[in-house]
Amino acid sequence: MAWLSDFWSTYNTLVYSIGVHAMLALSIQITLSCGLLSLANAAFMGIGAYVSALLTLTLGWPFPAVLAAGTLAPALLALLIGAPVLRLSGVYLAMATLAFGEVVRVIVLNLEITGGPEGLNGIPPSTEGWHIALFLALTVYGLVRLARSRVGRAFEAIKEDEVAARLMGMDVDGHKLFAFTLGALIAGLAGALNAHYTFFISPREYGFESAVDILTMAVLGGTSGLLGPILGASLLTVLPEVLRFLQDWRMAVNGAILILVVLFLPTGLWDPHRVRAWLRRKRREEKA
Amino acid sequence: MNMLSLKNVGKHFGGLSVLEDVSFEVPAGSIYGLIGPNGAGKTTVFNLITGLIPPSSGSIALEGRDLVGLAPHRITRLGVARTFQNIRIFPHMSLLENVMVGMHRHLAYGPAALFFNTRACRDGEKKAKERAFELLSWLRLERKADLLADSLSYGEQRKLEFARALATEPRLLLLDEPVAGMNPSEKAELMEEIRAIRDRGYGVFLIEHDMRFVMGLCQHIAVLNFGRIIAEGKPEAIRSNPDVIEAYLGRDDDAETQP
Prior knowledge:
The complex is a heterodimer of chains A (288) and B (259). With 288 residues, chain A is mainly α. Chain A has helices at 2-33, 41-59, 63-85, 90-110, 129-147, 150-160, 162-166, 172-198, 208-221, 227-242, 250-264, 272-287.
């Protein structure tokens, strides 16, 4: 059992990161499933992280309360900015949400209370493994329920044909705002959890690169289901560690693997349609 | 009582006038046809009624209720559903899901019921599924209920669009060129299905430029040409109306030209 505890003390942050990244990938999957390319989730994660960390450090709020605050603050903001921003679509929405992310980053960088570029130090490590497991499970369960309900169908219809969805009596703008806000909620929760096991947060972690990373996780894993984003998040978190033996070549090989996946599996690693077709073929071969 | 009435409706895009002073009334429980040559402004009429674009002038009312200025989804909820000239189904969803999207508003379970998968939620979903199946069977598509919509033939996709429109529980169904691109036997079949829909108590208002189809199906017809209504009445009267013949066949140059 000694090896297990060794393994855990070395890699527990990595395992935590897989969980948090999975939540982030799922948070962008929600907006994608509604046909919205929103890149604001890294910023929402940052807001969740800063709000919760500041409440812990300055006001000494208990952990459950700071988690709730870190989850709700970005969701409220999403509700406010959603109405104007979601009038845009496609790349224009991507640009607007990226710009929003930059604004958030610059504000955090220049405020005194957030510690500016130095970030916040000494956040107590209140997050435990089971917290992340629990919230990830709740997120997955909630999203499974959503996907199988009238709301999931509405998202899909809006993604397929917005005008037709509107003329089916559907409040398209309301559903988009809901998807955007729910994404912010989950990203905020991930941020709050993340802040309370990394000890230290800085504005750098929530900028453009993170926004693209989150999108990459979801797209790489496959956006036509819930398993895809989780798979993508796990792979992108673990891969750099697994490739550590390559030393200087590590990030180059990491990038090459991503290119290969996108080239040969353009719908992502996990595509329910492809898996179903493969199973059918297998069954036919067995019969023959 | 008239189902739908348009009064002095006009629409212009910049300096281009598409519809001018269009007035007509669609009676309840019948099949009403709007015909006219290509580019006469027929689809624009549908876009105005369903709220996709606002009229420049005039009023549109459903059973006395003003529709102008309402969002498209509100108008659908008041009981107007439509199909599209260039089919707009949800291609990557199954037939059943396509129809269930139309029932969205009638599935009234809250977020808590959804999350905890309560009995209300399960029953609602089950009922919606049964109703969707029934609507598909009206159009003889029930055996394909679980296929993806884009695997259907062109004619079947049109029928799926009907079923989906009916799922919104409309009182008036707007059909935009329902038989475009269909062969004669498909047309005859669809004619029967539209009659059957009317007999179930729905008002039907269709746009078409296949004259034979319209003459055989509609009780009332309005003819639109260059954005104006040039004739309105029963099929027999429309058939012999000289203005309509001219709009469709052109003027006979050998005949006496009007001053």
